[in-house]
Write a structure and sequence with these properties.
The structure holds 2 protein chains of 2 kinds. Chain A is built from 3 helices and 10 strands. By secondary structure, chain A is mostly beta strands. Chain A has one domain: Lipid/polyisoprenoid-binding, YceI-like (Lipocalin). An 8-stranded antiparallel barrel of chain A has the order 1-3-4-6-7-8-9-10. The longest helix of chain A is centred in the N-terminal third of the chain and has 15 residues. The radius of gyration of chain A is 21 Å and the shape is globular. Chain B is an all-alpha fold. Chain B has one domain. Chain B contains 11 helices and no strands. In chain B, helix 5 packs antiparallel against helix 8. The longest helix of chain B is centred in the middle third of the chain and has 28 residues. The chains are: A mainly beta, B mainly alpha. At the A-B interface, helix 2 of A face helix 7 and helix 8 of B.
């Protein structure tokens, strides 16, 4: 083996085995491919479900050290859809989401705890109806790959679940009307690398 | 009475944080301020009392819509709360001249509170609907006590004008909240509710009726606007 070949192999091994510090990648939430849904027990009969159709946000994702990642999401409250226009109006009223005064729900991560190869708990401040509370999201990183028809566009995807208590945010009427007040949140989110 | 109204609100909506965050919290503080301001208004002439209430209601309205207003969002439906203040203030200024019957104002308040509670419930403001129902129960109890006193003595004790002022103030604040934030409020129904504020104008004629008949006459007259208002709200539901 020539000296040149030995150097080339050594260089290749170095590149593939040495720890390389990646900067975090930045992503924008792909609104059309994001589902922020929730379910809340309705007087024991069934789980009432809803979805927020207008969700935007930014993600900074450091795959080498997930704890350096961050996420910031904005949900338009008025985009709520519970499969009934009347109920949507009611839920948007001052008793519940109070859309007139608080048109946005925001989530800003504060710290991340890695729990597995592709799982983490993302802690953050959920701000809704003027009240901020810490919420823990159980997050799974599903996949990242280029779009099949556009190799230059990289998409990544996550699934997450959380549980919140509506009364923590001042929605005291939930219990009075047989709703929850515990709300199970499910999020499926795709984001495009910038 | 003013403290009772504030207590009803707090029992339903909980104790507000300080400083207030949402409009519900702001309304709690506004209601609590009414009996306190009553101490200032106590010795004032009626038009000054009415003006004070108008200022309180207008400031409360601006406070309630401060967030959307500062975000540059205006809503034409805000004309309803402003109209409520505009209609209510002159009525209150004339209160001493429209109190020949002791039942004029209690029945007017009760009728408006009952109608407003139905409009709130059907208008998607469930919490406020409950508050107004409880207020209706309080006002009904007061009217009933007056009626029983009439049965016993032939005539009830006419309450102090400040009683009317305080109830009027509480009801006005709640109507401002209703017309600003009810998501499915029927505008036509609400305008009929506002028309009920004119009920005391019938005071001169209805006070000539026998005392025991007067509360029923006022209630029947109020329902001429109240029942269509409720029907319109049902249609809008």
């Amino acid at each position: 083996m020539s000296v040149f070949s030995r150097k080339a192999i050594a260089a290749a091994l170095f590149i593939t085995t040495s720890p390389v510090a990646h900067a975090a990648d930045h992503y924008t939430v792909h609104e059309d491919h994001t589902w922020v849904t929730f379910s809340v027990n309705h007087a024991g009969w069934a789980n009432a479900r809803g979805i927020f159709r207008n969700v935007s946000g930014d993600i900074s994702f450091d795959k080498d050290d997930v704890t350096n990642s961050s996420v910031s999401v904005v949900i338009k409250s008025e985009s709520l859809d519970t499969n009934s226009e009347q109920r949507d109006r009611d839920m948007g009223g001052a008793d519940f989401l109070n859309i007139v005064e608080f048109p946005e729900i925001t989530f800003d991560s504060t710290r991340i705890e890695q729990t597995g190869e592709r799982t983490a708990i993302v802690y953050g401040d959920l701000t809704m109806i003027g009240v901020s509370r810490e919420v823990a999201l159980d997050v799974v990183w599903n996949n990242e790959m280029p779009l099949p028809w556009d190799a230059s566009t990289i998409k990544t995807g996550f699934s997450a679940t959380a549980t919140i208590d509506g009364t923590d945010f001042g929605m005291n009427q939930l219990k009075a009307f047989g709703l929850g007040p515990i709300v199970d949140v499910e999020i499926d989110l795709e984001a495009l690398r910038q | 009475m003013g403290l009772a109204i504030a207590a009803i609100y707090l029992l339903h909506e909980g104790f507000p944080p300080f400083p207030a965050i949402t409009s519900k919290h702001k309304v709690a503080y506004a209601l609590a301020a009414i009996p306190v301001l009553g101490l200032i208004a106590f010795n004032q002439v009626s038009y000054r009392r009415a003006a004070l209430l108008a200022v309180v209601a207008a400031v409360t309205f601006l406070w309630l819509v401060l967030r959307p207003l500062t975000a540059g969002r205006l809503d034409w439906t805000w004309l309803l709360p402003l109209g409520t203040i505009a209609v209510w203030t002159p009525m209150l200024a004339k209160a001493p001249d429209l109190s020949r019957s002791p039942f004029t104002w209690p029945v007017a308040h009760l009728a408006m509170s009952v109608t407003a509670s139905v409009l709130a419930l059907l208008g998607g403001f469930l919490g406020l609907g409950q508050v107004l129902l409880s207020l209706s129960a309080l006002l009904a109890g007061y009217a009933l006590a007056m009626f029983v006193a009439t049965l016993k003595n032939g005539s009830p004790n006419q309450g102090h004008p400040m009683m009317t002022w305080v109830v009027q103030g509480g009801l006005l604040i709640l109507l401002v909240q209703l017309s600003t934030f009810a998501t499915n409020l029927s505008t036509a129904a609400y305008l009929l509710l506002l028309a009920m504020a004119g009920l005391p104008l019938a005071d001169a004629k209805l006070s000539r009726l026998p005392m025991l008949v007067q509360p029923f006459a006022f209630a029947a007259l109020a329902m001429l606007a109240g029942i269509p208002a409720i029907l319109l709200a049902l249609r809008n539901f």
